[in-house]
Amino acid sequence: MKAYVYGANGAEITDVAKPSPKGTQVLVHVRANGLNRADLGMTKGHAHGAAGGVGTVLGMEWAGEVAELGPDAKGVKVGDRVMGSGGAAFAEYALTDHGRLFHLPAQGNMSFEEAATLPVALATMHNAVVTAGALREGQTVLIQGASSGVGLMAMQIAKFKGAKLVIGSSTDEMRRGRLKDFGADLAVNSKDPAWVDQVLKATDGEGVDLIVDQVSGAVANQNLKATKIKGRIVNVGRLGGTHADFNFDLHAARRINYIGVTFRTRSIEEVREIFNEVRKDIWSAVESRKLQLPIDKVFSFAEIGKAFEHMEANQHLGKIVVRH
């Protein structure tokens, strides 16, 4: 089968063996893929957790049809239209655990391209906002890096769960201007030091109850100033840097609960529980399209290299999708 593989000459489409499902695995005939920032790094040979390097089939989310079941797989049948996440996604066929996928809604004619934008964003941000972040109705939340696909989803989930104030950050003026379309009551520029004062003004000087941080780096201490006493910060991503100065005294004085999350060190049982929580808590909003992501551009699988060039140019809003 054809797959997008990182090799000695970089990332390219090549032939690899078609996988076979074992145990609780499901083999999916991939119809569309969503691109993610972590994929971009892996196209350059960077590791993402245990994955990466020469010989790696790239990609982490897809939508398609169930082609084959492992002997212990449950909850799906051959022919089901599904979306899900897992490694080696940029291929004609992909494997995942039976608990790591969602059925496409029966109503509404959701396309495979639309579905391919959702799995990573839904699972990551429901866990960050609702489970780890413990957002409650009437609370205030700031999403750092809100113009990314997962950031747009985080704002929508926060609004759906009853946040009274949603703030989104973006360093790009055009994208910042679009954040209100996805649930932001206020949009700030995290490169402008005045953003902390804007957040404090909007929260009567207290700071937000919750920050979901995809930036870190230089904004780490600013986040502490913008979080209310006994608030929470959930560290999801570090696009602005993995190391920075950290004001431990301010952290302690504001008694902030600082939480790190990642899928890379989770067991399959933990991942299954995250997918179950999405189904139980917000799936009705996915079915009704209250939670959805814009597609910036669709490329053919043969043009996947161009899709990543488009991502690297960093001028898009929403998801970049590859159609098979």
Automatic annotation (TrEMBL):
Alphabetized SMART domains for the sequence: PKS_ER (SM00829)
Gene3D superfamilies: Medium-chain alcohol dehydrogenases, catalytic domain, NAD(P)-binding Rossmann-like Domain
Annotated keywords: NADP
Residue span(s) of domain Enoyl reductase (ER): 7-322
Any GO MF annotation of the entry: oxidoreductase activity
Domain of life: Bacteria
One Pfam family hit: ADH_N
Protein's recorded name: NADPH2:quinone reductase
Organism: Bradyrhizobium lablabi
